[in-house]
Amino acid sequence: MSLKYVGKNITRPDAVKKITGKSLFLDDIKLPGMLYTAILTPPTAHAKIVSINTSAAEKEPGVIKVVTGKGIDFLFGDNVKDRVPMAVDRVRYIGEPVAAVIAENPHQAKMALKKIEVKYKTLPVYTDAREALKKKAALIHPESGNYWHLPGMGPEAKTNIADHYLLKKGDVKKGFAEADLVLEGEFNYPFGSSAAIEPHGTIALHHEDGGIEIWSSSICPFVIREDIARTYKLPVASVRVHIPEVGGCFGYKSDVTVEQTIAYIASFVPGRPVKWVASRKEDFLSTLLGHGIRTKFKVGVKKNGKLTALQTTILHSTGAYVDTGLHVMRGSTHNSTGTYEFPNCYLDGYSVYTNTPPVGAYRGYGHQESQLGIERMMDMLARKLGMDPFKLRESNYLGPGKMTALGEKLWESNGNVKKCADIVRKKIFAGKKKKEDADYYYGRGFAAIMKSPKGAPFSSKSCYLKFNVDGSVSINMGGAEVGQGLRNVVRLVAAEALKIDPSRISVYTEIDTQFSPWEWQTIGSMFTIQGGRAVVRAAEKAIHQLKKTAMQALKCDYDMLEYDGDYVFLSSDPSVRVSVPSLTQGYMTEDGITIGEVVHTTSDARLPRYSNPDANGQGSCGVTYTFGAQACEIKIEKKTGKIIVDHFASSFDVGQVINPIQIRGQVVGGVVMAVGSTLYEEIKFDADGVCPNPHFSKYRFPTINDAPAKQTVEFVETPGKIGPFGARGIGEHPVIGVAPAVLNAVYDATGIDFYEIPLSPEKVKAALDAKGDR
Amino acid sequence: MSEKITFKVNGRERTVELEGWERGLDVLRENLGLTGSKRGCDDATCGACTVVVNGEAKKSCVLLAKKLDGADILTIEGISKGKKLHPIQDALIEAGAVQCGYCTPGIVLELYALFSKNLSVSKKEIKDALAKHLCRCTGYEAILEGALLAQSKLKKNLSVKRPSRRFCNV
Ligand code: FES
Ligand code: FES
């Protein structure tokens, strides 16, 4: 298929507004009569609230109202209703809202906050799932057995287990019996923050007529709308949610996070909008964290390299509330096979309540956490077998005719991992490894990756497309632009499908549930594939409408007509034609009588046949897969233990590149983000559940000097069957293989196996010294 | 105790009444409505709030507002002329350096101050200036590419002698 616009570097439509500082982000919005709120959080992560005294705070200048959670009689949550908008009688994590001040300006609100007195009675604090699982552990949610939850998921009463997912394929005992070698390993991917540069924020307004209006730097306006409507017992139509420009998301602005809290606070001042924007500390500790996943692997393999069995335990410290976290654990569990076919699997995942901020989506959604394990295991297995690690992998790659752990059969259209692996292998491993010198060890490492989207039964995206009188086109959708460039994807896909120049297509700039067509939420690297499909379907419908009117205008049969973007014409005689603009609002005949319809269409698209897991945990819950491979060359400074990534290569089978500059930007940015996780980033908690490093100065975030000196990015384009023009997603994929590739390279350089990140210079140095001593 | 300060922003003289606690960023965003400068952190680490003060790139979130009395400030709102973007802006767009755009205004102003002082800075010096900024989206590659492109565009402009801009002789 020759494509005219898809695959070309056409500048994104929002670039100028962004570079002139004119894009409106949440914090840039000022509404008439707006008030500001500041939120009090506790000094310890697990405690009963004995008393709250707000009287001094109420007398502070500018204070309108002081709010506590006393008397809240509802829980919220999409998967498990276990959340409260503000602590009622106990706090469960360090960022939990305990009270709030509403004031005329943010400074006054913050000052008055200091005057609130709270007495706590401390409870035992668990910051790691392993502690919370102990027999005598106190219950973080004593009443979790009564919580509403979606069928097939949710807490186990009288334990701190918040969700359990078991996936079985074949017979794992038999598989291990057949193995010539069984190897075990334990890995840890600690807490991190998505840490978009724009902190999360919300404005909430309870109108006097009962309706509620919310502005949020979120990617799930419709989830928020439905959730708020349920809480306040309103028709969903009475809640309106606006999403302005979003300054990066990377996961944690999905699901309902702070919106319920701000809506609750604002409910005390009907008629006045109340704004809250997180400080960086609040963004870390009072929204959603990422990861917190420990994994155990047991892999069986035959001498010839054929994998026979996989047993994994995924232990997720899900935080104080599980609602958003359980799917991360589930995704992590069913993706713990990585890109390999195991005939026998026993994959056992637990989300466990802990006294840490709730974990939610983080770019990669469980994949990097468990694929760190499997990709390290593959290297270690190859070593034990005395086999080339590439050969071991190649003997087991998923591909056409193979079955995933979920029992989904793969086809050629799912993409080709081997091709990706060959590309990065050539880039990184072609020459000889650099020899150790006085200052550095050198190493090379590889990881193959698999990414499945995280679907849900109603995970649709919709598109509203209208032709204007001049033949230009306006498109409205509910997908959140967070920087990833989806507006350009929409525009290029529409241009291709409608055969018109992208400059004639305008794409929505903000989401407003009052006007935007419904979309579940912009997650799971699904927008290109699903949203793009919705655009193609809407375009096809619009062309159909144009032809229907043209058929009357030209007095001919429908199937004799063709469309080229400018005209609808007779295929047998293109000079018999009618222009698109003359058809858009219906066609006016010579006598002024108008025939036909206004050309505007709606469409939707979801992942085909997504299903809930069956009794074995299997089903079509992966739905479509993307494969790729990543590899790197590193050096390790002997003196300090510092790891320097010199060259990082990535290749993914994306089906079809939509925009080369943007897709490279996604990969390069994702790799640097994951280099951050691998080498520097960790949100820590002490014994009281207090975070000692809730600021960028202590949460080491990669700067330009930490980015790999060179990145190579290449794509394989095996067309998929679902997405527009064969395209698949890319947003999350680049973060998945980074940690294992780097850790495999560290072994290559030093002969030391690491199982945990971040790999700080201190850790590496200590291990090097210990090795030297031996 | 309120206090008045007068300073120049984007070539215009402005007078603002302070309560005393405000930082430069608060004055720009809240008092003057110049919301192109962004806040991304609490500890002067992200660079999203960077503006040019008396020719130097400064993190406005830590500048005490009263110290701005008499200063000459350039914000992102003053850098392009109507629909005509500054070459730094053109270059960053061309390189694909704009993703979410939240870090972008600060980076534009950092480069503006850098190139205004010395257009012949080395790549290393450009990287050191950019290292004062956090970007979660791009991985910095396109930003560096855009910065280098901007440098060469500005050098070309210099050779055709554009009329000088404020702070910027290029
Ligand atoms: S807001 Fe000023 S440096 Fe982050
Ligand atoms: S473009 Fe998003 S933070 Fe830089």
Structure description:
- The complex is a heterodimer of chains A (774) and B (170).
- By secondary structure, chain A is of the alpha+beta class.
- Chain A has three domains: 15-19 and 460-605, Aldehyde oxidase/xanthine dehydrogenase, molybdopterin binding domain (Aldehyde Oxidoreductase, domain 4, 2-Layer Sandwich); 31-123 and 198-247 and 253-285, Aldehyde oxidase/xanthine dehydrogenase, a/b hammerhead (Aldehyde Oxidoreductase, domain 3, Alpha-Beta Complex); 293-455 and 610-773, Aldehyde oxidase/xanthine dehydrogenase, molybdopterin binding domain (Aldehyde Oxidoreductase, domain 4, 2-Layer Sandwich), CATH 3.30.365.10.
- Chain A has an eight-stranded mixed beta sheet with strand order 3-5-1-12-9-10-11-20. In chain A, strands 7-15-14-13-8 form a five-stranded mixed beta sheet, sandwiched between helices. Chain A has a four-stranded mixed beta sheet with strand order 16-27-28-29, with helices on both faces.
- The model of chain A has no long low-confidence stretch (mean pLDDT 96).
- Chain B is α+β, with helices and mostly antiparallel strands.
- In chain B, α2 (87-95) runs antiparallel to α5 and α4 (123-130) packs across α5.
- At the A-B interface, α1 and α15 of A face α2, α3 and α5 of B.
- The structure holds FE2/S2 (inorganic) cluster (2 copies).
- One FE2/S2 (inorganic) cluster (FES) sits between chains B (99-104, 135-138) and A (197, 248, 483).
Write out key terms for the chains shown:
heterodimer, A: 774 residues, alpha+beta, Aldehyde Oxidoreductase, domain 4, Aldehyde Oxidoreductase, domain 3, five-stranded mixed beta sheet, 17 helices, 29 strands, 25% strand, globular, B: alpha+beta, binds FE2/S2 (inorganic) cluster
